[in-house]
Amino acid sequence: MREREFWELVEEVFGRGYGRSLSRDQRLSKLGGMTVVEALDAGEEPRVVWNVLCDQMDIPDRDRWGKDHAAPPMPARFDVK
């Protein structure tokens, strides 16, 4: 997943305003308490950040990928549970 695709999904799933606000304010416990923006700036894989955000916000798998997106493979080094 590219970062551009990440931001497209943020807007599609959460809405433009709420998604951007959530990305700046929501702390992700599985990523050391970083926000979405901090995690991406730190070099975390967008796919990982997306799954952690969706898990924390209780977004079911069927609703995570929007209409035009296929779920990209997870990086081998991270197992989201």
Automatic annotation (TrEMBL):
Residues 62-81 are annotated as: Disordered. Keywords: Kinase, Transferase. Pfam families: DUF3046. One of its GO terms (molecular function) is kinase activity. InterPro entries: DUF3046. It comes from the Bacteria. The keyword Kinase applies. This is 4-diphosphocytidyl-2-C-methyl-D-erythritol kinase.
